[in-house]
Amino acid sequence: MSRYAELREECCSANRRLPEMGLADLTFGNVSVMDRARGVFAIKPSGVEYEKLTPANMVLVDLEGKVVEGKVRPSSDTPTHRQLFRAFKGVGAIVHTHSRNASAFAQAGRAIPCFGTTHADYFYGDVPVTRPMTEPEVASAYELETGNVIVERFADLDPDEMPAVLVHGHAPFVWGTSTELALETALVLEIVAEMALKTLQANPGASPISCHLLKKHFQRKHGSAAYYGQPPAGKTL
Ligand SMILES: [Zn+2]
Hints:
This protein has helices at 5-20, 78-87, 100-108, 117-120, 135-139, 142-153, 179-202, 211-221, and strands spanning 30-35, 40-43, 59-62, 67-69, 93-96, 164-166, 172-176. 38% of the residues lie in helices and 12% in strands. A hairpin with a 4-residue loop joins strand 1 (30-35) and strand 2. The protein is of the alpha+beta class. Helix 3 (100-108) crosses helix 7. The structure holds zinc ion. Residues 96, 98, 170-171 line the site of zinc ion. Zinc ion binds at residues 96, 98, 170-171.
């Protein structure tokens, strides 16, 4: 039995959930799950349909890009995931989708404005978009450079407070401390992108919510003063 049985299992079921959650068409999209203690992550194999995914065909890759276990090629987006795991140390899972409304903002080269509290509960401000990639970046190690432009965009952003990005002309990457949270955040991103498009339809001049409302909603769910929901096991009210 693989040393990475649990990681394979978790990665497989997370990938299979993408189409169930309405976040993936055909084979677009992939999830990776990190084991920080071992410095290894599991990722979907390249070009395999979601129904054909099994724990056995997940691919295990280390942070240098070496395949540690796996009989098939990993997702072509693997170097992007690797750069994000290397740069954002608190990230436990990464979800890449071409979900339609979030991708529409990526294609438009526009950040998703924070128009309401649904957005503010998960993202501390506008969801950013990267700069367009240059011809040499696209011609060389394209997927690795995609990771680099994301990291560059986060030079003055905290990936714990902004767990998503739109890659210009492409689609979103979303992350979380756990696989469950990364999937949930990818779904919320798609929902708030749809809401934002409708907001702009209803009022092309709509403004983002105030800083104080944004701060209130984000901080009641995140950080040391969070009070939304139930406390984690072992922590008192
Ligand atoms: Zn993609």
